[in-house]
Amino acid sequence: MTKVVIFGTGNLATHLYKAFLNAQQVEVAAIWGRSTPSKAQFGQAGMRTSSLSKIPEAAVYLICITDDAVSGFSRQLSQEAFVVHTSGALGLDVLTQARRGIFWPIQTFTKSKEVSINGVPICIEATNPKDVSTLKKLAKAIKAKPTEVNSAQRAYLHVAAVFVNNFVNQLYSSAHDLLESQKLSFDLLKALILETANKGVNASPKSIQTGPAKRGDKSVMKSHKSLLNKEQQKLYVTLSEAIYKTHNNNEL
Amino acid sequence: MTKVVIFGTGNLATHLYKAFLNAQQVEVAAIWGRSTPSKAQFGQAGMRTSSLSKIPEAAVYLICITDDAVSGFSRQLSQEAFVVHTSGALGLDVLTQARRGIFWPIQTFTKSKEVSINGVPICIEATNPKDVSTLKKLAKAIKAKPTEVNSAQRAYLHVAAVFVNNFVNQLYSSAHDLLESQKLSFDLLKALILETANKGVNASPKSIQTGPAKRGDKSVMKSHKSLLNKEQQKLYVTLSEAIYKTHNNNEL
């Protein structure tokens, strides 16, 4: 049985808490929040508290709070504990404990939505090889895919995640605005968005690219641009140039 | 029973052919290809031919060939027939027939992959109101969602489709390159890509945006940029600026 304390009550904390409850080999010894975590949401934790002095001993102290606050928070915890953060953007060195680690699920979580952690890769790093094993066991217990990566690899993974999550979502948002301007429902793009994602993960994305930018079809691109505002045009031009260059080894 | 002739043997032609075969109210009277369409692939069509002079009469002549060739092709068909193209990029006026129409499924098709047309929106336009009805019936017969749009709306839909398909796929491709450079599998992003798409279609994409660009977190953005080549940096900066501006009404 691996005893875990979760610090935080946000999206990731909530999803990990639920996953740990369903795992037979894991016990949530306590959940900490700036104000005491609600019984309704976290009632099955061994302890719910807002006081760091009451935190029980545990094999893993898991920090699930906002990136900016992690470093200061780690200083307030026992320096003898095994303290782990869950951020893709932060290095190991933001933690002050000698035994420190990273447990970063490469997934986007929404509080109000069930997102399965089943099969989700979790990037694992720790100063101590035994602690690496503990984190791997923890990931396996919730049926996630532990993946040991070093800090350099994690940095690349994090920026790649920004490309396929934040940046892709911004393109969805632009498309949403374009349709809204014509009183068209965003639902019209639903099938295309889902199939684009499905195709992308099951092939090399480069090999399945299509469209006017790949062909360098200037007349279609010109008529597209005429429909866009200045901000949308910037995106259109930059992405089209990137596509053309990728496939034609040449400037558009 | 609606008799249809399909011109073309590519991705879209293949998917529509299969969908029409499964629809009780539709008969594929003929399929035409530059060379005679293969029996293995199109054996259940009433006729397989490469000769335009042999094309039988039908209620709908459906052109599923590459955009550039549509206009010239339409001139070779009977000027009395109801001729329809299937492109999102082309207007009605590329067709020379008096009775002309558009039947554009907003989906990306891959020849080797089963893609359900079930529930896919099909944009419909025609010069003649009765022909609009025929195209709607055709879409319903294959369980797609007919959506009557005018040419202006279709133009916006097409550029929006480029954003969520071509441009999104280019971001997948960049992420793929970033991971490859670190000998990391693109599979690590699979769960994130699929969930990002799922979230995007079930919410307003703007309302669920997260990440360093939205927060204007310059230190994370700077360290991200240091990992990227010149082309990737261009995408990173343009997308980050767009996200920041969308959420902060201000330049980054």
Rg on CA atoms of chain A, Å: 22 Å
Helix percentage range of chain A: 40-55%
Unreliable stretches of chain A: none
Number of strands of chain A: 8
Please tell me what the overall shape of chain A is.
Answer: elongated
Structural class given helices, strands, pairing of chain A? Answer: alpha/beta
Helices and strands of chain A, in order, run as EHEHEEHEEEHEHHHHH
- Biggest interface between protein chains, with counts per chain? A-B, 84 and 84 residues
Main sheet: strand order of chain A = 3-2-1-4-5-6-7-8
Tally the helices of chain A. Answer: 9
What is the beta-strand fraction of chain A? 15-25%
On the 0-100 scale, what is the average pLDDT of chain A? 96
Largest sheet of chain A: 8 strands, mixed
- Taking the alpha carbons of the first and last residues of chain A, their distance comes to 59 Å
Oligomer: homodimer
What does this structure look like?
2 copies of one chain form a homodimer. Chain A is α/β, with parallel strands linked by helices and 252 residues long. Chain A has helices spanning 11-22, 39-42, 67-76, 129-141, 151-181, 190-202, 212-215, 218-225, 230-248; strands spanning 2-7, 26-32, 48-49, 60-63, 83-85, 100-105, 121-126, 145-148. The first copy, chain A, has an 8-stranded mixed β-sheet, with helices on both faces. The interface between A and B is large, with 84 and 84 residues.
Blueprint of the fold:
The structure is a homodimer.
Chain A: E1 2-7, H1 11-22, E2 26-32, H2 39-42, E3 48-49, E4 60-63, H3 67-76, E5 83-85, E6 100-105, E7 121-126, H4 129-141, E8 145-148, H5 151-181, H6 190-202, H7 212-215, H8 218-225, H9 230-248
Parallel strand pairs in A: 1-2, 1-4, 2-3, 4-5, 5-6, 7-8
Antiparallel strand pairs in A: 6-7
